[in-house]
Amino acid sequence: MIPDVAEGVTRTAQRLDWRVAKVTEVHNETKRTRTLVLDIPEWPGHRAGQHVDVRLVAEDGYQAQRSYSIASPPESARVSLTVERLDDGEVSPYLCDVLGVGDGLEVRGPIGGYFVWDVAQGGPLLLVGGGSGVVPLMAMLRHYVAADRSMRASVPVRLLYSARTVDDIIYRDELQQLADCPEIRVALALTRAAPEGWRGYRRRIDRAMLEEVGWPAAEQPRTFVCGPTPLVESVANLLVALGHDPASVRTERFGPTG
Amino acid sequence: MQTEEMRLDGNAAGGALREIFARDVTAALARCGGCGATAPMGALLEYGHEMGVILRCPTCDTAVLRVAHTPGWTRVDVVGISFLMIPEN
Amino acid sequence: MADTPFIARGFHSRRAPAAPGRLPPGQYETRDFPVLSAGPTPRTPLAKWDFTIRGVDGGKSVRWSWDEFNALPHETPKVDIHCVTKWSKFDTTWEGISVDTLLSAAQAVGIESAPYVMAFSDGGYTTNLPTADVTGGKAWVVFGYDRAPLPPEHGGPARLLVPHLYFWKSAKWVRGLQLLPNDQPGFWEQLGYHDRGDPWREQRYQGDP
């Protein structure tokens, strides 16, 4: 059942229980990232930007728990997570290598009331992501695209997304299609290696890049920054140095780079 | 690896906080008992690991909120929050 | 139903239990040296660093600058360490000053001994210990690890080292010891961790015997 978006937002006072979701689909996005599509019983719906906690319990009682951003928009019937495999991780290797269609996965959510965006909140909207930090931003973009044309007209959106190489760009084809939308601008930055003929940026996100891609502070954009902690903190500091109100820059740190 | 590279923020503690406050508080504004700066709980710096959750003020590093689960009890130290404004949703 | 945990198919801990005898109960061996911190890494310049032992009730104190501290006799303990989050690391090597040396110096200037101590650190971290657990060759203030200066993320310039207790007692970025007539809980002890923390008796939490 597709949640009614107009009524839409998850009541924050709902019980937060662990539920066993069923994996209905898995597909690889890049060499190191994989999307899991889940059927979650009694799912109350969610907002773009929210995450779930995932818990793994082994037979001997050993437990590990991590948070993963929801990649699917509120308009989707099923909940997708896109997971980056960290080689020395506790949970991500299991989710990427072992978990399969038909398996159960314990999740709790949706969680979050700060790093969330609904098209009704308006814009202009600047999304800045590094690596797997693009996942919650993609939920926001997908939600935007599903929204009424008339709403979109008044909310221009820009995404600045940095990845190591072109093969590390998650959702690359979908982003290319989104860039065709007149209200959406997508800028990509490769930090390690770029292919012949690459017309995007070839360096880490810096002040000049943010000035070129983002809006001037006077436009009062809403900004969401997500990815490895050093990137998030650097970008947030740069935006404030460019004059943006710190309260308008929302951050979600994913910890160390994979 | 430096501590600062590993730190998360109040968003990651969202599930744990919801169990204590019975509602999502990542958007709640907390006033730091150390320096008086106000920030959303989601923007506090998390130094949580398996021992507990420590949320610190991004301005002065005071521990605003500390949580630890030990058998039979969850202890919550809110001495670092001088004021909390939770939005009605 | 809520009591039966859902077992994730094919999920195993990567942590293989090592040979018994050297591992306290519930622990596994690691070859890494995980960094766990309750706050940001302090950056005290050595010119500003000092180590203080404070007597009970704000009485006398004794203080060493970095150079004075380094001039004290060095020891190079090689020890196993055990974290309450269940990892243990064998044969770690350190260099530092025995706490016995520091407490003797304190006594020599008239600071009376006390049954408990509270270690205090840059950044506000504290941990309480029975004095008996930091004397008799059981504890050091170390500034070297693995034959190099102790790195900041592991507590440098100097940390407490009390290897026979869980490693949260080995306070990073330590700046001194406050002598106490009565036990008082430090940072983690206030949140439910044990006042003593003996890994061989699995004293992880308040109330553990």
Structure description:
By secondary structure, chain A is α/β, with parallel strands linked by helices. Chain A folds into 2 domains: 18-111, Elongation Factor Tu (Ef-tu), domain 3 (Beta Barrel); 119-253, Nucleotide-binding domain of ferredoxin-NADP reductase (FNR) module (Rossmann fold, 3-Layer(aba) Sandwich), CATH 3.40.50. Helix content of chain A is 20%, strand content 31%. Chain A contains 6 helices and 11 strands. In chain A, 46% of the residues are buried. Chain B has 89 residues and is mainly beta. Chain B has one domain (3-85). Chain B contains 2 helices and 8 strands; from the N terminus they run H-E-H-E-E-E-E-E-E-E. Chain B has helices at 3-6, 14-21, and strands spanning 8-9, 29-32, 38-40, 45-46, 53-56, 63-70, 73-77, 81-85. In chain B, strand 5 and strand 6 form a beta hairpin. In chain B, 48% of the residues are buried. The model of chain B has no long low-confidence stretch (mean pLDDT 92). Chain C is mainly beta and 209 residues long. Chain C has a domain at 47-164: Oxidoreductase, molybdopterin-binding domain (Sulfite Oxidase, Chain A, domain 2), CATH 3.90.420.10. In chain C, strands 1, 4, 5, 8, 9 and 10 form a 6-stranded mixed sheet that branches. Chain C has a 5-stranded mixed sheet with strand order 3-2-11-6-7. Chain C is globular, with a radius of gyration of 18 Å. Chain C starts with 27 loop residues before the first strand and ends in a 29-residue tail after the last strand. The model of chain C has no long low-confidence stretch (mean pLDDT 94). Chains A and C meet through strand 6 of A and loops of C.
Q: TL;DR?
A:
The complex is a heterotrimer of chains A (258), B (89) and C (209). Chain A is of the alpha/beta class and 258 residues long.
SSE layout and pairings?
The complex is a heterotrimer of chains A (258), B (89) and C (209).
Chain A: E1 18-30, E2 33-39, E3 51-57, E4 63-69, E5 79-84, H1 92-98, E6 104-111, E7 125-130, H2 134-146, H3 149-153, E8 157-163, H4 172-178, E9 184-190, H5 207-213, E10 222-227, H6 229-241, E11 249-253
Chain B: H1 3-6, E1 8-9, H2 14-21, E2 29-32, E3 38-40, E4 45-46, E5 53-56, E6 63-70, E7 73-77, E8 81-85
Antiparallel strand pairs in B: 1-4, 2-3, 2-8, 4-5, 5-6, 6-7
Chain C: E1 28-29, E2 50-54, E3 61-65, H1 66-70, E4 78-82, E5 87-98, H2 99-108, E6 116-121, E7 126-130, E8 140-145, E9 148-149, E10 159-161, E11 174-180
Parallel strand pairs in C: 1-5, 2-11
Antiparallel strand pairs in C: 2-3, 4-5, 5-8, 6-7, 6-11, 8-9, 8-10
